[in-house]
Predict the structure.
Amino acid sequence: MKVTTVVIGAGHSGLAMSKCLIDRSIDHVVLERGQVANSWKTERWDSLRLLTPNWQSRLPGLAYDGSDPDGFMAMPELINFIDRYAVTAGAPVQPETTVTSVQRTDGGYRVETNQGVWDCQAVVLASGACNIASVPAVAEAVPAEIDMVTPADYRNPDQLAEGGVLVVGASATGAQLAEEIHRSGRPVTISVGEHVRMPRTYRGKDVQWWMDASGLLDETYLTVDDIVRARRLPSPQLVGTPEHTMLDLNSMSDLGIKLMGRLAGVRDGQAQFSGGFRNLCALSDLKMGRLLKTFDEWATENGVDSEVANPERFEPTAVEIEPPLGLDLNNGEIKTILWATGYRPDYSWLDIPVLDRKGHVKHDGGVVSSPGMYLMGMPFLRRRKSSFIHGAGDDARELTEHLGQYLEGQAGLHGAAG
Ligand SMILES: Cc1cc2nc3c(=O)[nH]c(=O)nc-3n(C[C@H](O)[C@H](O)[C@H](O)COP(=O)(O)OP(=O)(O)OC[C@H]3O[C@@H](n4cnc5c(N)ncnc54)[C@H](O)[C@@H]3O)c2cc1C
């Protein structure tokens, strides 16, 4: 089969790209190994809600239009939203089509799937940033009696053995799951590495309102101080609940969740935690203070002080003077370890040398070094908001522009040669 462009993946990123390609009359197909919104349908836990408010769910040609703009979508609602987007955009999705290989050819690319082969001039990789749950090597030293689970397999606490749970990682996923598991009656210990603390609500407005209005979410990869670091930042400790609750280490320890430092190793059944936990928390508090100061300055400079409540500051993170450095994994108290240690993409099917040492596609704002190849949906791809639903639109528009020019250039070249 021949098509001008193949988009791989029918999550919101691939669909936003498809909408922009349609608007530019670029012929394409969206290949999806499952159904539209496959990741949300098959890889998330039951109670998950978006941590971004409903008003922020906006894609090219479709924005949230329900009755609760400040609420947070649960999975069925989000799946409906993305399914509806695929239909209204008219995306040419080919479901149940798994890409097994992408190779370079003279005229562009050869995309092999379980449903046939597509030859195309351009390829958009929109296959997701979170295909595989990352588990650190230290997991290999965990005693065999302890069950291990990742957020990709976890659905609800009922699937866990009764008894203690060690959650490793305290970003959005780890913090949300630690709380849910604790509420199920299982004693939870959470191991905390570098983390981004944020209030849910600040001066009467959702923190995402501040991030959006102050322009922080629009900061680009060309202007941010350290793009390598910015792309690695963990997700903020936020949860979307009907009560707009704040989720941080203080709220977790108030519930009775035990806090430990970063998991450094496991030896002879003893988990060892690094000693810098207090400093780590102090740094995170400091960064949150800086963020709130940025919001305050923006509010004053833009004359919105009178529209919002007064500035507020939050209690520092409470950490024991000498937090424990070890945890016995042999004494039967910990029955399960949940590795909430991040996700990574899977490009095992990409037969083109564009990956770095860590298996991430090398790119310049989504433009991959292999001509006619583009990337969507990665953290800080072009902007701070790139990996979020509301971030796909601007990236898709700009990359479609680039892709269109590339195709025109190719047509010109072949025209000249012919
Ligand atoms: C737990 C969690 C919570 C999140 N919460 C929020 C939130 O609150 N707000 C927000 O804006 N963002 C959130 N995100 C981030 C982001 O919106 C999601 O990761 C989103 O799913 C990314 O969309 P995507 O289209 O880039 O990737 P995906 O939704 O993962 O879509 C990629 C698609 O590609 C398909 N695919 C992969 N490989 C192949 C292949 N070889 N062949 C064919 N198809 C393939 C997959 O089946 C999938 O459908 C969250 C992410 C996670 C993991």
